[in-house]
Amino acid sequence: MFKTREAANAWQRQWNKNNPEKVKAVQKKYRDTHKQQESDRHRKRKFGIPAERYKEMSEQQANKCAICRKLETEVDTRTGTVRSLAVDHDHHTDKLRSLLCRRCNAGLGMFYEDVELMSKAIKYLEEWNVRNS
């Protein structure tokens, strides 16, 4: 049909540009039917962690959060399935730490991974618990 690969690629780019809704639907269908592969690919790309290493880490933690020691409960609204544990890493060094539930991972982020700030929050809660006892 096309004389060169470049011509085929140019045609495909133009078709994609002219049919964004169809492209979006195909991409969504692929993501929905290949959720695990997409998650594995994302972790590999973002954190450099292969699927096998993630699985080992999860098994070592009994599939529970390293902080609260609970199973992940957050549900992906697109697929209706429980999300996998988040890969926690140091944002300054990019060193992997462990796997966390979404709540604990977000909590660390909300405190900018600042130990002093988190200590102040703990003291604040302790003071209010004593006052309200």
What do you see in this structure?
It is elongated and about 75 Å long. The model has no long low-confidence stretch (mean pLDDT 93). The protein has two domains: 33 residues, no CATH class; 88 residues, His-Me finger endonucleases (His-Me finger endonuclease fold). Helix content is 58%, strand content 7%. It has a two-stranded antiparallel ribbon with strand order 1-2.
Shape by Cα distribution: elongated
Low-confidence stretches: none
Look up the CATH topology of the largest domain.
Answer: His-Me finger endonuclease fold
Radius of gyration: 22 Å
Question: Which helices and strands, and how do they pair?
Answer:
Blueprint: H1 5-18, H2 20-33, H3 35-47, H4 51-60, E1 86-89, E2 96-100, H5 102-110, H6 115-131
Antiparallel strand pairs: 1-2
Question: Which key phrases capture this entry?
Answer:
single chain, 133 residues, mainly alpha, His-Me finger endonuclease fold, 2 domains
